[in-house]
Amino acid sequence: MTSPDTLTPAAPRPSRWRRLVESRGGLGLLFMLPAAVFLLCFLTYPLGLGVWLGFTDTRIGRTGSFIGLENYQWLADDPVFWLSVFNTMLYTTVASVLKFGLGLWLALLLNRNLRFKNFFRAIILLPWVVPTVLSALAFWWIYDSQFSIISWVLMSLGIIDAPINFLGDPWNARWSVIAANVWRGIPFVAISLLAGLQTIPQSLNEAAAIDGATAWQRFTKVTLPLLTPIIAVVMTFSVLFTFTDFQLIYVLTRGGPVNATHLMATLSFQRAIPGGQLGEGAAIAVAMIPFLLAAILFSFFGLQRRKWQQGND
Amino acid sequence: MAKQTPVQDDSPGIERFETLPRKILTVWLPLFVFCFVLLFPFYWMAITSVKPNHQLTNYRDYSPFWVVQPTLDHIRYLLFETSYPRWLWNTIIVAVASTFISLLASVFAAYAIERLRFRGSRVTGLLIFLAYLVPPSILFIPLAFIVYQVGIFDSRLALILTYPTFLIPFCTWLLMGYFRSIPYELEESALVDGATRWQILTRIVLPLAVPGLISAGIFAFTLSWNEFIYALTFISSSENKTIPVGVLTELVRGDIYEWGALMSGALLGSLPVVILYSFFVDYYVSSMTGAVKE
Asked: Which family does this protein fall into (chain B) (predicted)?
């Protein structure tokens, strides 16, 4: 075989190039290069830099010096930080449980043999497709302290006398942002779980029914165990996104009233960008990492279990 | 990993033993409540954006759920008296450019990990997955620092270069799944026929992975269209803002909210992705569930 390359006098550069391209490792390295450069420069490096910034007193426009754990000591005595930790926990737990419950219910409804099933599936995903900030603006208007449509409906039904102050009262504000988050998260959970439900053969359910299982037993003894692996993964993602949520809070309350709805992410932004304390903001962001690792490990074992259930790869 | 295919079974199964009234109560009623709650904010957004100002807050004389004499004033205001068209343009450029870059990098990375199987490819695949789990809200502070030092602060380039950090892991992960489903034999026979890896990739694998490319592409486009925290942090001047940031920071002034303009801003900003979505519903679903399932 003569390829055009062998006809030309063998120059060292093309031949080295050829060797690189023809070896598996070399070509693999070459193909990985663009992605690797991006991820190393803008993901790995910032991640490390963030940890480093957490140990410094850097401010916007001034490089800081190493101050050890001072930021963390400062945060440990900061009631606002602990309030944000509490809020993040509350927000994540309540919203995730609700998203899971309602999402699973919706998935079960959609898994039935319905007319216009695809149509329903399509419109249910809408809250998830629309930019969060823009749908949060709609919620802001729905939660308006004077002209809220919810207040108006409840008032015309005679259930309440005065408009509800949705975002002005600490607990009202917490429940309101949780409701908005659940609204936005249900489609993701429902559609992902629906995909999982569709892999479960109907015959299993039918066999159980013939053996005399009630609908509830069929759900808990057949559907749920088969769905567990996918639930683990979906909920890990959901917890992850909820825990690190920023947009909804930023639009609806900016952490107010009086820090009552600050999450760790919004507090970190608040301290770092408008406040200028990059070091302290980075420390708050770093404090989120242990929780994220816990969620990732959870996901990892969920995946492992799935592999084990399917037998060896 | 064995691929689980959805069971295509449209027979009513045991559902046929259910009576109609019971089905209405347990299925259709909850379903309609879900749909109503999930869609109401959009209806409210749309109806507000065409309401004249005097009807907006006058619930006594006008029904809040409907509009008499709809107006396009808010949209006209938005398009001709604010920087909205400019934000739209910025958002389009940033979304298209970062999607394109991410797809390009991801195709190579996914092919290398899935098919070249170089030493360490499994670990690389796992690392890519972990990178997907790193949330922007812990990266934005150091990234702002870097962007500032590189000298691209307050420019579209800052967004174009940082969005791939969450797009590449996602696209690579998704494309790995698609490449895995292409039979090895096709590539092997091409190799035997003397094709180079480049030819295999461009002539065999990519044409077969077109659905995957579409899924990854529109999904990445939507993600960058919706991105907020980086755009909020890295951009300060009005003419470089994207739609989500521009609408929130420039249209909200003081204590008097111009709800009409705000809602039309939100509506117009959502329309492009919704239209894209309506054409590619199945691709969206497959990319969303694909990322979770693989």
From this structure: Belongs to the binding-protein-dependent transport system permease family.
Which one, of B82, B22, B84, lies nearest residue A134 by Cα?
B84
Q: Report the complex ipTM.
A: 0.87
Point out the residue among B109, B111, B247 whose CB comes nearest to the CB of A134. B247
Query: In this structure, which CATH number among 3.50.50.60, 1.10.3720.10, 1.20.200.10, 3.40.50.2000 belongs to the domain A70-309?
Result: 1.10.3720.10
Question: Is the distance from CB of A165 to CB of B60 less than 8 angstroms?
Answer: no
Residues of chain B with CATH 1.10.3720.10: 77-293
Domain boundaries, chain A: 16-54, 70-309
Compute CA distances A221 → A208, A218, A236, B17, B161, whole Å. 9, 5, 23, 21, 49
- CA dist., res. B220 & res. B209, Å (int): 16
B window 202-261, beta carbon within 8 A of A = 222, 225-226, 228-229, 232-233, 243-245, 247-248, 257, 259
What's the fold here for domain B77-293?
Answer: MetI-like fold (1.10.3720)
pLDDT tens for each residue of chain B, 294 residues long: 344 455 555 566 666 667 778 778 888 899 999 999 999 999 999 998 888 887 877 777 777 788 888 888 888 888 888 889 999 999 999 999 999 999 999 999 999 998 888 888 889 888 988 888 888 989 999 999 898 888 888 889 999 999 999 999 999 988 988 888 888 888 889 889 988 888 888 888 889 889 889 989 998 999 999 999 999 999 988 889 999 999 988 887 766 678 888 899 999 999 999 999 888 888 888 777 765 655
